Amino acid sequence: MKTGSYLVMLIHNHVHGSAVMPPTELDQIKAVSAQLAALGRQLRMFGMPNTCAQPVAVELGDVVAMVRREVEAAREATAAVVRRNLVSWEAVHA
């Protein structure tokens, strides 16, 4: 982002009290959210080998479930940032 554009956005955010992100950063956050969603889908499809002993299979299943919850929480947090940015931008330009 050009320095002038960044300064305009910085002043805009300060004057209006809204936190509008630079487009490049917003695009990066959208990409991270999409990657987290894809990772969550892959974890959902992840299968345990049939040769695992029962205690190992249970522990592995618990770890995969925990990772899925953490990935979903991170995806929701990044999606919330994008939504807040959109609402903030629309409130100022509506």
Task: Quickly list its features.
mainly alpha; 94 residues
How would you summarize this macromolecular structure in one to three sentences?
The protein is mostly helical and 94 residues long.
Task: Kindly describe this structure.
This protein is 82% helix and 0% strand. It has 94 residues and is an all-alpha fold. The protein has one domain (3-93). Helix 2 runs antiparallel to helix 3 (54-93). The mean pLDDT is 77.
Strand content: under 5%
Q: Which secondary-structure class do the elements indicate?
A: mainly alpha
Query: Judging from the principal axes of the Cα atoms, what is the shape?
Result: rod-shaped
Rg of Cα set: 20 Å
By oligomeric state, this entry counts as single chain
Q: How far apart lie the N and C ends?
A: 24 Å
Helix content: over 70%
The total of beta strands comes to 0
Mean pLDDT, to the nearest integer, reads 77
**What's the structural domain tally?**
1
What composes the largest sheet? Answer: none
